Amino acid sequence: MSAGLICALDTADLGELTALAAAVGGEVDLLKVGLEAFAAHGPAAVAAAAEHAPVFLDLKLHDIPTTVAGAARAAAAHGAAMLTVHASGGPAMIAAAAEAAPETTVLAVSVLTSLDDTALAAVGQPSAAEQVPRLAALAVGAGAGGLVCAAAEIAAVRARVGQAPAVVVPGIRPAGTATDDQARPATPEAAAAAGASHLVLGRALTRAADPAAAAREIRASLPPRSPTR
Ligand code: C5P
Question: Is 32 annotated as catalytic?
Fold first, then answer.
């Protein structure tokens, strides 16, 4: 089995989201509804995606534990299979989300893949190499089912949390394609070989002339995951 594929349905146009979900839903393991689609259409965006594959609701929750618990409960009620919170919200917040949504895999976003070490220093944070494994251990210890991080940090994250938690990796770009606003990108092959459980594919699919064919091509290129992962 290779790493799972997740298509990011990043659009505010519900018709476009529905068409993309229908086109790629059979080729990927989950469909990701993010802030753009959810801000525009709310639960209707989740329902449209859920017609075609399990839904990853990427809301990156970050608030006091009580508020995040309520939001996680509501997100789970929409049928989200995966849900994100920010690891930097702290262990009590992560635990509150995990307890409020026991049937949903709560993923902790470590450090956004759009941030490089200069940007992290500007907000008073240590390098990604230092911060991501620390947040990974904290999040899994608090009850998160997995992490979101860049490919470069997977080995250090696996060393801290082992092989069981999901490690979901955005910033994926096939070799030779534009990296856009992603500061810590990787190819699908490199991220899978490093131990990612899931790859998030946004513009790698949405910019392709045939997103379903692009997903098939990426899946065919991936190395098998070791049975311990
Ligand atoms: O188009 P692209 O592949 O860059 O899209 C990446 C997707 O992954 C977006 O939906 C973005 O919100 C999400 N994401 C990310 N970095 C994180 C967490 C989520 O890029 N750390």
Answer: no
Residue reference for tokens 């940090």: 153
User: Please, is 14 exposed, middle or buried when counting C-beta atoms within 10 Å of its C-beta (0-12, 13-18, 19+)?
Assistant: middle
The CATH number of 4-221 is: 3.20.20.70
Q: Please work out whether the CB of residue 182 comes within 6 Å of at least one atom of ligand 1.
A: yes
Query: pTM of whole model > 0.70?
Result: yes
pLDDT tens digit sequence for 136-178? 999 999 999 999 999 999 999 999 999 999 999 999 999 999 9
Degrees (nearest 5) of the Cα angle 119, 192, 33?
65
Q: Are 14 and 40 in contact (CB under 8 A)?
A: yes
Q: Is 152 within 8 Å of 186 (Cβ atoms)?
A: yes
Q: Which of 10, 38, 203 to mutate to test the pocket of ligand 1 (most atoms within 8 A of CB)?
A: 10
Among 60, 134, 203, 216, which one carries the catalytic annotation? 60
| Residue extents of the structural domains in the chain | 4-221
Task: Kindly give the interhelix angle for 91-100 and 65-77, rounded to the nearest 10 degrees.
Answer: 30
Residue 218 CA to ligand 1 center (angstroms) comes to: 17
Ligand 1 pocket, residue 113 CB under 6 Å? yes
* Two tokens, residue 121: 């220093």
Judge contact between 90 and 68, C-beta under 8 A.
no
